[in-house]
User: Which sequence fits this backbone?
């Protein structure tokens, strides 16, 4: 019996999920015991660990991306395959398992570029590139490896993103409760699971900025001395400029109905530079003298409130009409920003006092392990030969099995 | 039952092999019916067809290779996936089969770069990049797709090449006969299969230039008016300069014991420019006036003879000591060069009058279909979950299953 079949027929499987996010800090590895497939899936985290990228690598795949040539890209694919294998082996060893006990590795890979558009003079075709070769991982670990999930969805006309909503569907779908899984990463995105929903009922989209604009504002105004608002302390000590907030809320993106997705192109450093300039002009027009020390806290509070308001607007406009919201499960770095959490709770309380607001931790999932866990679940479906995309979220023509398989 | 398992247990399988060579002319597709695995394999070609690359694409992946950026490479991977799917569908339709009758597609992909060395300032790791995404092929055809064979061998310390010797072993291995499968492409390479050999006994290596130096010489001396020696007519009308030939034969590569491989780096356009200059100097030193018209035929004859002599030297030095040579099966463009074929036959006749010299056509395999057929056989082994590399030829530490699998 082959490794794929033997993993399929086992009562439970041990899978290592590997995630390397767009921040390119390193690799998160999550070792899970999984039973069943689809909505019957039961996943339990056994161990979580991470492996930092060397600085030279981080530099190459962030700042230096536009200077990468063919040779760099080819070698990076193998180099990362090596690191991903190391991350998996480290996680397995720390968890106290032997290699032969592990059924599969499921790896997202490192996104170098994601191009759901067709804007190219010679090759007008959507494309994406996740590197970290799965044959390299399989050979260096001796474990069946699954990965490279996005191309199949794109070949079916989808955006190749988001992928995590499938795991949300499998993990959090409830017969009686309507749930929102709210991730506040650089960008904020949500998965809505109506009570006893089928895959077709799942809604998932990017609500707008998460921490991206907050972090960039702090970074720009402190000239790099600070990079984030730890615990939301800065925002909590500032005052939201309501008028300027209304101006920020006038962006077209917020009013576009889902499915929709966004990123650095819309809410990155250029956006932040522009709105800081606008804020300056705004308060000067009111006869107030611009003083960076005085206005720093207020502008951070204002862009933090932008995240809150765009999330809440999305719930009221696109989620509430589709079904009840009984539970909101917060995740991502923003789940640790006490300003964001407090304000979200206040707003949800005023929408409906019965909405329960939880974090992933509250339901036994370490916040940092969530995405790696999601790839355990996506890989588990490949073993079960079940489709694992969410066409209603990605825009794909049909449910398909995302991912490639490499034998050790 | 999944597609991989159901293909495995069938009495015979229909597999489409796809090959896109380094000349980047287009895609060769070969539809095969295959029974069994390993040395029990029986393969029969049902149809062969090819699809030309658009000129813009050909330009991008040959002349423009060093100018490719990250976005180009990502989009090329999807664009080629599309073309490979089209090539497979065309072959299947021409052969009169329905999609559901085909068990698998097995694709080599287009090599953009192959780097078995470690010469990189930040990423000192061997790598290779074959594009034409197999998830795209699987989704657009609805057929199980296998491909990207080289990385697994390289992860095991191998060169990721050559791959075809495995197919030679499966197709041509004989209980009583010792056989050389001699490919004369741009580079000449051979697979030697001793009588009743096991995989460990297989020898495979590049003997030196095939048509590469001949073609480049003709192209340079006719300023691009001719690109090859059709039927070997030019060489047949010239006279080999024995003294200059001895000079050419002094290159180190020819005396290096196998396993070894070479390419454009050693015998490309720069090599050819250099030896043309040397030839000129050589005959001028003999007091003869250089006349391009007069010496053209002789220099073509001389570089053609270089191909013959390096092949024959390899047989005598590295093959004959390992076992009997009963049959030589010629393939590649050089199998149509009547000068090369005549001279090889003469040399082999003088080695041993009983050596039988055949072409692939003589044993029912169209010369042009050979490599695509080889990938049917490599893919068939993935279905059978059998190793399909030749460690004695690639230098890999052990036999492994090369290739990744994408489900439709």
Assistant:
């Amino acid at each position: 019996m082959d490794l794929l079949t033997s993993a399929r027929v086992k009562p439970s499987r041990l899978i290592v999920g590997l995630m390397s996010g767009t921040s390119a800090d390193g690799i998160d590895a999550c070792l899970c015991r999984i039973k069943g497939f689809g909505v019957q899936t039961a996943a339990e985290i056994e161990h979580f660990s991470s492996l930092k990228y060397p600085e030279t690598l981080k530099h190459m795949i962030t700042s230096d991306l536009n200077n990468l040539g063919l040779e760099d890209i080819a070698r990076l694919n193998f180099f990362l395959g090596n690191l991903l294998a190391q991350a998996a082996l480290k996680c397995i060893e720390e968890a106290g398992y032997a290699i032969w006990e592990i059924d599969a590795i499921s790896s997202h890979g490192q996104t170098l570029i994601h191009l759901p558009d067709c804007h190219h003079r010679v090759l007008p075709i959507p494309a994406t590139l996740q590197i970290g070769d799965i044959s390299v991982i399989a050979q260096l670990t001796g474990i069946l490896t699954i990965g490279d999930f996005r191309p199949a969805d794109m070949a079916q006309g989808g955006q190749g993103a988001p992928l995590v909503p499938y795991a949300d569907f499998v993990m959090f779908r409830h017969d009686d409760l309507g749930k929102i899984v709210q991730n506040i990463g650089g960008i904020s995105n949500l998965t809505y699971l109506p009570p006893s929903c089928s895959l077709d009922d799942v809604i998932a989209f990017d609500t707008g900025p998460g921490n991206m604009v907050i972090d960039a504002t702090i970074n720009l105004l402190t000239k790099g001395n600070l990079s984030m608002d730890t615990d939301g302390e800065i925002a909590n000590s500032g005052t939201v400029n309501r008028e300027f907030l209304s101006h920020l809320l006038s962006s077209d993106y917020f009013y576009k109905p889902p499915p929709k997705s966004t990123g650095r192109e819309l809410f990155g450093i250029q956006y932040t530079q522009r709105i800081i300039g606008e804020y300056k002009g705004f308060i000067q027009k009111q006869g107030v003298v611009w003083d960076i020390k005085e206005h720093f806290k207020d502008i951070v509070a204002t862009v933090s409130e932008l995240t809150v308001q765009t999330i809440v607007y999305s719930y009221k406009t696109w989620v509430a009409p589709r079904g009840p919201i009984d539970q909101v499960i917060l995740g991502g770095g923003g789940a640790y920003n006490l300003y964001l959490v407090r304000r979200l709770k206040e707003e949800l309380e005023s929408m409906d006092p019965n909405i329960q607001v939880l974090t992933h931790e509250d339901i036994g999932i370490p916040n940092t392990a969530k995405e790696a866990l999601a790839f355990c679940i996506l890989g588990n479906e490949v073993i079960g030969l079940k489709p694992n995309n969410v066409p209603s979220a990605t825009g794909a023509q049909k449910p398909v099995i995302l991912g490639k398989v490499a034998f050790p």
Notes: Chain A has a mean pLDDT of 95.
